[in-house]
Specification:
The structure is a single chain. By secondary structure, the chain is an alpha+beta fold. The chain folds into 2 domains: 94 residues, Immunoglobulin-like (Sandwich), CATH 2.60.40.420; 28 residues. It contains 2 helices and 9 strands, in the order H-E-E-E-E-E-E-E-E-E-H. Strand 1 and strand 2 form a beta hairpin. Helix 1 runs antiparallel to helix 2. The mean pLDDT is 80.
Length: 172
């Protein structure tokens, strides 16, 4: 009898975990890696395409002898990828996320490098919106019902075990 109760608790816990797992985990997009090489005075590649909202991991290698950096300009706003310019012969890695779709200007903010032709462009594609039929959840989307239902089910299960145990003691 005791063995059945232990197996019941284990199976109930496993069932609860299966029901709750999709609602608790959200898949996050893996970073897209973009490798860029600096030289005097160019980026290679000079044109890059990425997706809006997806983290981008920039791996930059300065193959030249002068320090270089990457900055982006879009809609009057600009920001640098690396906090400090990367010295000649050095490499660095930084993450960046483009939150607006469109064509961004890429340039080297060090000295007059941009004026000397160290420019490029980043094409940021709009993130694809999931197609959702009205009234129906998409696959993997939590419905909001499983968590409370799972808790109620677990409470009923544990309550039933205690009630059964109590009834068995009274019968003795």
């Amino acid at each position: 009898m005791k063995r059945f109760a232990v197996w019941g608790v284990l199976l109930g816990t496993a069932l609860l975990a299966v029901l709750l797992a999709p609602g608790l985990t959200r898949a996050q997009a893996a970073p897209q890696q973009v490798m860029i090489t600096f030289s005097e005075f160019a980026f290679s590649p000079s044109n890059v395409t990425v997706t809006q909202g997806r983290p981008i991991q920039f791996v930059a290698t300065n193959g030249g002898k002068y320090p270089h950096n990457i900055s982006f300009k879009y809609d009057g706003k600009s920001s640098a990828v690396f906090a400090q310019p990367i010295r000649g012969g050095q490499s660095a890695t930084a993450d960046y996320t483009f939150n607006e779709a469109g064509t961004w200007e890429m340039y080297c903010p060090v000295g007059n490098h941009a004026a000397m032709g160290m420019v490029g462009k980043i094409t940021v594609l709009a993130a694809a919106a999931p197609v959702v039929e009205p009234g129906m959840p998409t696959t993997g989307q939590p419905t909001g019902f499983l968590f409370p239902a799972g808790l109620v089910g677990l409470a009923l299960f544990v309550g039933g075990l205690f009630a059964r145990r109590r009834l068995a003691r009274r019968a003795l």
